[in-house]
Amino acid sequence: MINTPASIIPPGFASHALQLLQRVQHGISPVELVYAAHERWPFRPGHAVHTRPSLHISVLDASFNPPTLAHLALANSFPPLSHQRSLATSAPAESYDARMLLLSVRNADKVLKPGDATFVQRLEMMRLLSHDMRSIETSESSGVSFPQMSDNVAVAIIDEPTFVGKSTVLLHFLKKRLAAVVESSSSPNSTSINRDASYLFPSPKLTFLLGSDTLIRLFSPRYYPSEQVMVQMLRTFLSPDKEDCRVVCAYRNVSADKTFQETQDTIMEVACEFMTSDRVVFIDIGAEEQNYSSSEVRAKVAARDGEWKQLVTDVIANFIIRGDIYSGSAREE
C-alpha cells in the first residue's frame, strides 16, 4: 500500500513551516529546523551524547522544486571510501551520523517564479523525501545490512546563497544545538559538564552533497568578490584546520548545459587543489538517476506527459497531483 502525503505529513505542518520560514526571511533567525527525526537530532537515537568527539552530518542543499529520484539517491549515498578512512565516524556500515535536507530562501542563481512550488510546498516535499529515504541500508562493500542513518534526518531552512556562507551559519547553529542537547541530557546526579574543563562538546563535521552542475556556484569566481577572495574562502571552507567541510559531488548528465561547459575548465582548475586532497570527491548515483532533473519534471507536468511520475517517488507524485503544482507553462531550472 502506498502512503499518501496526508498520511505522512502531520496536520499543521504547513502552518508550522510557514512560521519558521518567515522567521528566516525576516532575519529573526539565520536557520531553522522545520522537522527533525527526534528531539536529540543530530545525535543518533538511544546513543550516549557525552562520549562523542564529533558527528559527521551530510547536507543535501537543493531547490527541491521538486525532489527527484536523483535527490533521493544522493541523500541516501554513503561517504566515499577516501572520506571514510579519515572521518572515524562511529556510525555503522560506513554511513553518516546524521543527514540534513536544506532549503535556502536565497539562491545565487534561482529565484521563485510563477508556476514553481512555493517554499512551503517544497518543505512539505522535503518532509516526504525524508520519509522515502530508505529504512535499511546495505553496505555495498560488505553486503551486510545495518540500521540506516537516513532515519536520523532533519529538514532545515537557511538564508544564505553560497555554500561557504551556509557552512559558517550551519556550524554555528549546530554547535549551539549540540551543546544544548548535551546539557539537557546531563543527569542531575552527574558532575556538571560546565564545571568539567576537560569536556569538549561534540564537533559537527559537514559534508555537502551536490550535483556536478552545482559546482558552478562553488568554484566559479563570478560568485565571489574576486578570484583571490574565492580561493581564500574555499580554503577556509574546506581546510581540515578551519571549517573542515567536505564536498561529495554526484556525476550528472550536463553535456547539454552550455553554461556548465563554458565554465568547466575554470571550475576544474580551481577544484583541483581540493580534489587532490580528497576534500572534493565525485560519486556515481546511478546511470538513470544522473539524468533526472527537477526542470524535466516541471516541463513534463506542464506538457501533461505522464512519464514525469517515473522521475519522482510515489508520495511526491501524489503531492504534486493533489496540489496541482507545475501544471502551468514549463520553467527553466
Automatic annotation (TrEMBL):
<dbReference type="GO" id="GO:0000309">
    <property type="term" value="F:nicotinamide-nucleotide adenylyltransferase activity"/>
</dbReference>
<dbReference type="GO" id="GO:0005737">
    <property type="term" value="C:cytoplasm"/>
</dbReference>
<dbReference type="GO" id="GO:0005634">
    <property type="term" value="C:nucleus"/>
</dbReference>
<dbReference type="InterPro" id="IPR014729">
    <property type="entry name" value="Rossmann-like_a/b/a_fold"/>
</dbReference>
<protein>
    <recommendedName>
        <fullName>Nicotinamide-nucleotide adenylyltransferase</fullName>
    </recommendedName>
</protein>
<dbReference type="GO" id="GO:0016887">
    <property type="term" value="F:ATP hydrolysis activity"/>
</dbReference>
